Structures are given as structure tokens and as C-alpha cells.
Amino acid sequence: MPGRPFLIHLLILALVIPWSNGSAQQTCNEVYGSGERSFSVATGSPGELGLLKILGEAFAREAGASLCWIKAGSGASFQLLRQKKVDVILVHAPEAEEQAIREGWAARRTLVGYNEFFLVGPPEDPAKITGAASAAETFRRIASRKAFFFSRGDNSGTHQKEMAVWRQAGIQPEGDWYRITRTFMSASLKKAHEGQGYFLTDSSTWVMEKDRLPRLKVLFQGDPLLINAYHGLCQPNGATPASDLGARFLVFLASERGQGLIGEFGQDRFGQGIYKNARPKSEKVH
Q1: Residue 286 near residue 108 (C-beta atoms within 8 A)
Q2: d(CA 278, CA 165)
């Protein structure tokens, strides 16, 4: 029987072996479940915040599968799906989602939940955005005063939403006051906190991080433009070896069981769910 050092060596090797879907290798940030068949999901905040772990483990038990999470913002997730390097993406970039469906390299666009964006900043509010009539007006005030604004600048869903607000404001942001982080949501929030600037964050990340960010507060919310819907897309049937598992995972997310887990996520820690799971009657799976 192998000794303990040998078993430990094997365990270390297992942890660093990349996951492969048959066309290209990707490194898993986490693996949920232990079933023989594996499929991959690329996403950002749902993975960072732990929601994907809850959903992935529940589905893996039901399907006898394992889920490989690849940490990627919406822009990078679309590239991975298009290149057939992942089976599923969970993203929040509606125009890009619709284009992917039209072009035929993505399938089964499915609403899985939503939250909203908050504009946070220093409690002193140097740009005086509190009380503005719209998100676009807050951005105009920030730009006119050249107050520090932190942008992810990474073509993520958050960055795309930010740029949509700048377009509505009629401004192309540039200058020393406009600071690009090129990192994920939690890390960008920390940079805004350290730099005492404004930042557009999703509400779920804010709820989980706010106690560590005493020099930031929510200064604007409620504009319908800032609703943040997450959709799942998967590979067309047969496009990857695990495309069938990817499609089943989206069905699970939209099911009563999946939606219950999404709506409950965060209640044990914060007394409320941090993602909404209400499904508009007009929402369809494409």
C-alpha cells in the first residue's frame, strides 16, 4: 500500500492538473462535485461570491457530474465560449448575449437572476452626486469636478454597463481622474476605497464587502438603467463533449430548485438574499 508521502504527492498533482474539454485546456479556479463527467462554467461575481459553489454542488449531486469554475469577467467568458473552451457562461452583458445567439455560437440564453448596480464613493461626496436625477447625471457631476472614478476597464459586464452610462451622459471619460483597475469587482472596490474615488459596483458584491470598506458608501441607486440581469448561455448541441451537461445545468438554474437556491443565497449571513430570482413573464429561453 502506498505510503503517506506518495499519496500527498498524488494529491498535489491532482490539484494542479488542468481541466480539458477536449479542445483546449483551462485551469479550474475551483471544482465542485466529484462525478465522472465534467463540464466547465466561466463567470465572475457568482463564482467570487460563492453562489456558483452552492449551485454547482447541488447540480453535481443530481447529475453525477463535476463542475469546473473558470474565473472570467463577461468579456473573457464570451471569448472562451466562442472558442469552445468552456461549456457554459454566466454573464451580464445583454447586447453581447443577443449577438452571440444571433451568430449561432451560443444557445439557450436563460435568465438565472439579477441584482442592481450601486454608485459608491467617499461619504463626503466631493462630486455632490447624492440626489441626482439619473445615473447619467451623477457621471456628469463626477467628470465636471474631475473627482476620482475607478473603472474596471476590462470589457466585463460591469465595464460595459459603466460605458453605457457614460454614453448616455455624452462623455468620453479620460484624464488622471479616471483610473482603470483591470481587475475583478472586489479588488476594484478595494482600490476605490484606498483611492477615495467613485465606483460602479453590483449590489451583491457590495453587501458582502461593505463592512471592510468604511470609507465608501452607496451614494446613488435606483435608476432602471442600473438593473443587472444575469443570463446563462451554453454551447450549441454537440459543439463540445460536455455540451449536453451544460444545457442541463441551465435547465437546473431555471428550475424551482435552482431558483430557490439563488433566492436564498446570502440569507444566512445577511438576513436577505443578495440575488433576486423573480422571472419576468416576458423572459424566454432562446
Answers
A1: yes
A2: 25
Per-residue pLDDT tens digits for 273-283: 999 985 543 34
pLDDT tens digits, 183-227: 999 999 999 999 999 999 999 999 999 999 999 999 999 999 999
Q: For the domain bounded by 17-115+230-270, which CATH number is listed?
A: 3.40.190.10
C-alpha to C-alpha distances, 6 to 1, 10, 122, nearest whole angstrom? 10, 6, 53
Q: What is the dihedral of CA 173, 133, 186, 227, to 10 degrees?
A: -110
- Residue 280: per-residue pLDDT: 46
Q: Please, is 101 exposed, middle or buried when counting C-beta atoms within 10 Å of its C-beta (0-12, 13-18, 19+)?
A: middle
Give the mean model confidence (pLDDT) for residues 33-51.
96
Residue 13 has what pLDDT? 36
Residue 75 contacts residue 159 (beta carbons within 8 Å): yes
pLDDT of residue 123: 98
Rounded CA-CA distance 158/33 in Å is 29
Query: How many residues in the chain?
Result: 286
Cα separation of 213 and 118, whole Å?
A: 14
- Give residues with Cβ within 8 angstroms of 192, minimum separation 6: 120, 121, 148, 150, 198, 199, 216
Asked if the domains 17-115+230-270 and 116-227 are classified in one and the same CATH topology, the answer is yes
Q: Give me the architecture of the 116-227 domain, per CATH.
A: 3-Layer(aba) Sandwich (3.40)
Each domain of the chain, given as residue ranges in start order, spans 17-115+230-270, 116-227
Q: What's the CA gap between 24 and 264, in Å, rounded?
A: 35
Q: Pick from 253, 232, 235, 230: which is nearest to 87 by CA?
A: 235
